[in-house]
Amino acid sequence: MLTLENVSVNYGAIEALTDISLTVNQGEVVTLIGANGAGKTTTLRTITSLLEPRIGRVMFEGKEISAIPTHKLLPMGIAMSPEGRGVFANLTVRENLEMGAYIRKDKKGIADDMERGFTLFPRLKEREKQKAGTLSGGEQQMVAMARAMMSRPRLLLLDEPSLGLAPLLVHTIFEAIDEIRAEGTTILLVEQNANAALHHSDRAYVLETGRIVMEGDSKQLAADPRVKEAYLGE
Amino acid sequence: MDTFVQQLINGLTIGSIYALIALGYTMVYGILRLINFAHGDIYMVGAYAGFILATSLGFAANPSAFGFVVTLVGAMAIAAGIGMAIERFAYRPVRKFSKMTTLITAIGMSLLIEYLFVFIFSGTPRSFPQLITNDNYTLFGNATISTSQILIFVVSILLMILLQYIIFYTKIGKAMRAVSFNLNSAKLMGINTNFVIAFTFALGSALAAAGGVLTAQYNPKIEPLMGIITGLKAFVAAVLGGIGNIPGAVLGGLLIGAAETLVVGYGSAIGIPSTYRDAVAFAILILVLLVRPAGLLGSNVQEKV
């Protein structure tokens, strides 16, 4: 479904990604784990055309998308919950979700999906008319995910959804990821919380200083001594 | 007391015009963090567009409410188009460069518009045709209010209500707020941010043009450099209210207008000659920057260009 072919990305003279190749197949949850600054967010920003690859290409369903402007990717079926959540703090929760459905015109479908979002995260229903800026970090993450789901994407990109959240909320977020997956959405999950990410995904890539150093089945990687030592703190 | 009421009415009249222009400064700043120095000139362009429409369509000879509305709406539409063209061809190409580059571009754009109009229409002031019958109404005491002043209040208020409606209740308005808060997140929502930015310029330019046509009914002398000082005062109004803040722009405009005419009315009593009226706004600007840089309604200290 999504393929990165030998992608290298620069920030000015500094190479942030070196020769990245990865694949996400339909129906999978694939995770990209790595330390801070390894290039995880850069990878997602490249997929969504917020950054341009210096070499290599990004393919989505057989079509090269490297040069397609960001706002045209959503209609193709790619949605993202960005780094730092990126909620519109000056808009209410409901308006944030409406923005997620910006490209849609079917009022009924939008209303249904908004209800679905509220079922996924009942907390948001209570906060519906509140400005998103007044919510807690965990609630903002729920807004970001529910908002991304409002376009009924086929591929959902999640950038560190559990970052800075209390353990209970991390649990809520990962349960939501399982649910979204069960509804048939393909997910590429970028995480620092390798433990949770490996338990809620099918396959994983390990990123270190802009290179993929390991890849494979999530369960096997979770059992790999090198991964255990470097990322699972065992 | 009569003088006070009179000066207040006059002050709120020009203050409404400042407010209309300040809205454009503040909206563009909110969305692009750009001080669009050419915005004051759009006010002038609006007045000239109205002048051309009114004279060429024959409204000048037969004043009527219909003629006024057509002139007003026509001038707003023309200015909106010009505002979008400026954004598309001057600001968009330099958007990815430094703030200084865009700022210099804006100053250059301002000079270009001013002297292009001097070139086309000459620097000689023109007299804007009276499109409505201008009567004076006596309020309590000796204070009077003219038809053109009432028109300024009514049209400004209607336009501000319309703007409020667009920003808070329409899809494009919500997109404007989303873009102003987080450009990249907005792109990820499938929002064509270039279109939203162009729309913001159109909206701001239309309001400034309305200010131009309304002013020309109140004070019919128009000339190509009329936007400089009025534009600067409107900019000060936007800063006073808190740049990027829409109600702040309106409040700032009304306060600057009132302060200006009160100096004319009472300044001499405390040793400020009435010729200092243009200095008032800038004295206020210095005070605001010293005491409350975020402006009256601004919540936090904003990034400066």
From TrEMBL, chain A:
GO terms for biological process: L-amino acid transport. The keyword Nucleotide-binding applies. Transmembrane segments: none annotated. SMART domains: AAA (SM00382). InterPro entries: AAA+_ATPase, ABC_branched_ATPase_LivF/BraG, ABC_transporter-like_ATP-bd, ABC_transporter-like_CS, BCAA_Transport_ATP-bd_LivF, P-loop_NTPase. One of its GO terms (molecular function) is branched-chain amino acid transmembrane transporter activity. SUPFAM superfamilies: P-loop containing nucleoside triphosphate hydrolases. Keywords: Amino-acid transport, ATP-binding, Nucleotide-binding, Transport. Residues 2-234 form the ABC transporter domain. Belongs to the ABC transporter superfamily. This is Branched-chain amino acid transport ATP-binding protein LivF. The lineage of its organism: Bacteria, Pseudomonadati, Acidobacteriota, Blastocatellia, Blastocatellales.
